[in-house]
Amino acid sequence: MFLVVLPFLVLVLVFSYLPLAGWATAFFDYKPALGLSGSEFVGLQWFRMLVSSPTQLQQIGQVMANTLAMSFLGIATSLLPVFFAMLLNEIRAPWFKNAVQTLTTLPNFISWVLVYMIAFSMFSTSGLVNSVLNDWGLITTPIKFLDTGEHVWLTMLLWSLWKGLGWGAIMYLAAITSIDPALYESARIDGAGRFQLMRYITFPQLMPTYVVLLVLSIANMLNNGMEQYYVFQNAFNKEHIQVLDLYVYNIGITGNSLSMATALGMLKSVISVLLLVTANAIAKRARGTSII
Amino acid sequence: MPKTSDALKRTRGDVPFALVNYVGFLLFALLCAYPFYFLIINSVSANDVSALGDIRLWPEGLHLSNYSQILQLDGLSAAAVVSVARTVIGTACTVLASAFLGYMFTQERMWKRSLWYRLIIFTMYFSAGLIPLYITMKTLGLTNSFWVYILPAIVQPFNIILVKTYVESMPRSLQEAAEIDGAGTIRTFFRIILPNMTPILATVAIFTAVAQWNSFQDTLLYITDQKLYSLQYLLYTYTNQANSLAQAAQNAQGNLGAIVSAATTQTPTSIRMTVAVLVVLPIIFIYPLFQRYFVKGIMLGAVKG
Amino acid sequence: MVVVPLLGALSLAACTAAGSDDDPSGPVSIDQDWSEADPITVDVYDGLANYMGIQGGWFGKIVKDKFNMELNIIAPNVAGGGDTLYNTRVSGGELGDLVVVDKGRQMDELVEGGLLLDASDYYGSMTNVSPFDTAVQHLNEGKEGVYGFPTSVSSLKPTESSEGIDPTFGPYLRWDLYADAGYPEIGTLEDLLPILKTMQDAHPQTDDGKPVHAISLFKDWDGNMMVTAKQPATLYGYDEMGFVLAKADGSDYQSIVDPDSQYVRSLKFYFDANQLGLVDPESTTQNYDTMFAKYQAGQVLLSWWPWLGQSAYNTEQNMADGKGFELAPLQDQKVFSYGAEVYGGKQIIGIGSGAEDPARLAAFVDWLYSPEGILASASETQGAAGPEGLTWEKGEDGAPVFTDFGTKAILEGGADVPAEWGGGAYKDGVSALNVSTVLPIDENPDTGYPYSYKYWPSYQETTSNPLTDDWTSHMGDPASTMDYLQQNDQVVVAPGASFTTPTDSSEIEAIRSQVKATIIEHSWKMVFAKDDAEFDALLAQMQSTVDGLGYATVLEFDMANAKAQNDARVAVAKEFG
């Protein structure tokens, strides 16, 4: 049985593990043209540099706070796609259900750059929302929705929910179909109503999928991605919007410090795997089954 | 669908619930659909007006030159062929591999099963960086080769997890029935498991197909041969080209020459919007084809009978 | 165990490439007819190109006919992803058969890594390049070979401006509205504020009802500092060197965070402007495209660059109506101007060490420096005239004039090229190399006039309209904006020393990237501060934060570079002056 899996393991080895040899560059001042042998060995310099001055530590502290806040908000709302799928499943008219499903995945396909364009059109000082409020006489000076440092975490959460909710629900919609109809039948014989079916059958049956995804997203706590935050950032919200990935981009990519980027990537990989193992252990204790 | 049978008697809360449910989804769907509508009306409006963000309900200064200019791009059809090919072949490979591996990893008899499984899962969180990846591909002779689109994407940890979880939640009776018949693991997979996995495979297929269709990073890194450009990459470079031309103005001396018409001169923004519409449209048309797999539940009857 | 080959590749890719071209063959002549040679396709890694793929059209046909080769352009600008393409290709040991890269760090490491070919053997017979031998020698100094050829070389003196007609920087106002305000005299930078206020108050909206703001800013190009706040400093002869503003004549060096610096003065200027309601409140959130569209729509009144306000708003229609951006001089200005770079510009052309037919590439490079090559390949944005016989011809007096086709193709928005020249739209056939080997302002020995059509008498006669007529008559009939600045001693030329800024060490780079993020963030906040107290508090906060990050180290480095640059300017002015 192992032998039939072997070819796939070879693929993983070649495309995922072999390139990890490149982590070696984290300990050098790597210059691509000169190769590793022509680059200077610097040991742990890049790791130390991340925390070299108090001001920097303070910046990193703020960055970590943003990162974790956004991740926790994301995790806290991770049940929404489950409810989305359950409620959509209650819709009877197939055409309506399909239309909703298609339309709600649309935002997922629109790049953040364009999402920002739309946001700008709606929320800039001369945007739709401000003009409407102004016309109704509710405000006299435009509200600066986009360049305020307040509620940044919350607005970012709302944007990402809006973009990802429909798409994220797909997996649960699929999972609902795997539920054994016999469960519903016997519950119905016992006189369970619609909400009881949802509460006592559908929801618990979706939990395995949910928990798996939850564990995976806990491991991903440091990886918020940066595109969303990049397009929305400006001088006024930067303090609260700068997550780790964006911070790395802001200080890194304009320069050429490949080694520093590698060092960070390596650090993040290790932390992610540690988080994964920990979350898995907790899940195992709580639910009795291991995810990985 | 377990509850399409209307035998279910309506409880008191049903009607208000259904109403709220319908209205809620309707509103959210509109909220999600509007941005796409926004892109469409902006991409057919005068480019100098749309750049100001003033077009919100209907187009202004209607013109189709954004589309005609992009559709006239050199090599567009060839790139479309490459994109379709990588999407179809790549999706087929990934779906099969995910289904197979996801199932195999539920088989407790496999030697060192959890070790291999973990090895695969961990790769989700590893990033080696682009340079080692490039060197790997170059060493393997995959640069400027179509297979660079397919091979590295075959084993997808996330999809394997989805499938594995799905298989684990399938009624035990399915597998047991097959095993009683004396079918081997592999035969059980093809005869019993695979046909009963369509919903999750449809999910995996959607994820993979969209990822393949939208990917341009791999072309950027590994391909310089124009014949192998993917559609997304071609459009992406077209956007960048507009961007870098706009920046080149910085070095230009004085007037760039009379601009023929600000309304139809493409800007990076107008191109981005047009490209987004062009790229999303095929997805919208193909997506409903997958949807029917979500409605079919497991046909337990097939096993029982 | 499997790891070994990859580590080997990481470390050795470059070295193996270095060993292969060591055969001592002696000088090789490139003087032969290449049109009959075997057809080849060459990969051109071109840091300036704005097009990716096979060069087609009329330029492609010229290259094909002359050298029987096709150019496959690899353009990092188009590919995107910053330095990704460069880094990965270089790590693979192969950048391109022909490369256009930056001098300094990139060129040095490519030479050291053995990715560039020593073209010494061919250089002897590259007769079109030899007039610029000083620049070639200067570029390859200390490299034991000829690895690169300089671009944008010039036979002008380094103390002469390279800018010709329009300066790179300048205070450009909506001239029609400035005229309505009665052409008030502008003593110094801050005097602009009341004038802009008058202009904006007189025209609070465009004809179609869109709001007008005198000033609209954008953040897309912010680098070491807020880019729009650097611009006013250039009007007083300063240019940036990292965090230093250095005056063109070497008389002053300022740290930008210093309260007395021109940079802080600019921030204060914007702050005051914002208090007066002159700054577009969307400045902080809009991108370049949106801002540009506002210029196009006439919603902005001030531009620090001719290419911004003029290229957006000075359309033929607007100019015919007397509307558009023109220079409105500050009485105390000394506009920074880049001198002609005798040693060449920022980029170099090199031949890859893995090139299949280096002799042919050397011949091609040489051709790029011939009058024919310059006219055909020069960058379009710099006024490239195109090939003789197609777009232009010599008139009766020998001076160049556009053909009917040339007028259509270049000045009037485009035309299709005749089949014998390769067909297709003219602009699609323009050289994608986008590199000017010789400055377009240089004189073409064949005609006695500059390569760029913008300096041809026949072209200058055709460009007259109510806007420029009004400006010219008001300014005392100068031949051009640059001419006005020179007559009134309002320009300061930084001699073109082709100074290459040394690369930041990794440590400096790490500090710099954090410092500049801090400076940019605070600069924007200062502009939009609610009162003077907040402005000052933010300034103080910016200073203490950057100090904490290690600003002093970077400043010292930048200061040394700025002074070294000035030394080079003095030296080159002396040598060629």
Quick recap:
Chain B: It comes from Krasilnikoviella flava. Chain B is mainly α and 305 residues long.
Task: Provide the CATH superfamily of the domain at 75-248 in chain B.
Answer: MetI-like
What shape does the CA trace of chain B take? flat
**Main sheet record of chain B:** none
Highest CATH level, the class of the domain at 75-248 in chain B: Mainly Alpha
Low-confidence stretches of chain B: 1-9, 250-260, 297-305
- At CATH level 2, the architecture of chain A is Orthogonal Bundle
Structural class by helix and strand composition of chain B: mainly alpha
**CATH architectural label of the domain at 75-248 in chain B:** Orthogonal Bundle
Bin the strand percentage of chain B. under 5%
Q: Which fold name corresponds to the CATH topology of chain A?
A: MetI-like fold
Q: Report the helical percentage of chain B.
A: 55-70%
Subcellular location (chain B): Cell membrane
Domain ABC transmembrane type-1 (chain B): 80-290
Keywords (chain B): Cell membrane, Membrane, Sugar transport, Transmembrane, Transmembrane helix, Transport
Family (chain B): Belongs to the binding-protein-dependent transport system permease family.
Give the key terms:
heterotrimer; A: 292 residues; mainly alpha; MetI-like fold; two-stranded antiparallel sheet; 15 helices; flat; B: 305 residues; 14 helices; disordered N terminus; disordered C terminus
Overview of the structural elements:
- The complex is a heterotrimer of chains A (292), B (305) and C (577).
- Chain A is 70% helix and 1% strand.
- With 292 residues, chain A is mainly alpha-helical.
- Chain A has a single domain, classed as MetI-like (MetI-like fold).
- Chain A has a two-stranded antiparallel sheet.
- In chain A, helix 5 (80-89) crosses helix 9 (152-177).
- The model of chain A has no long low-confidence stretch (mean pLDDT 85).
- By secondary structure, chain B is mostly helical.
- Chain B contains 14 helices and no strands.
- In chain B, helix 4 (76-104) packs across helix 12 (231-248), helix 8 crosses helix 9 and helix 12 (231-248) packs antiparallel against helix 13.
- The longest helix of chain B has 30 residues, at 14-43.
- Chain B is flat and about 70 Å long.
- The model of chain B is unreliable at 1-9, 250-260 and 297-305 (pLDDT under 50).
- Chain C has a domain at 3-156 and 343-429: Periplasmic binding protein-like II (D-Maltodextrin-Binding Protein, domain 2).
- Chain C has 24 helices and 16 strands.
- In chain C, the strands form 5 sheets. Chain C has a 6-stranded mixed sheet, with helices on both faces. A 3-stranded antiparallel sheet of chain C has the order 10-6-11, sandwiched between helices.
- The relative contact order of chain C is 0.15.
- Mean pLDDT of chain C is 88; it is low at 1-5 and 11-24.
- Chains in contact: A-B, A-C, B-C.
- The interface between A and B is large, with 92 and 100 residues.
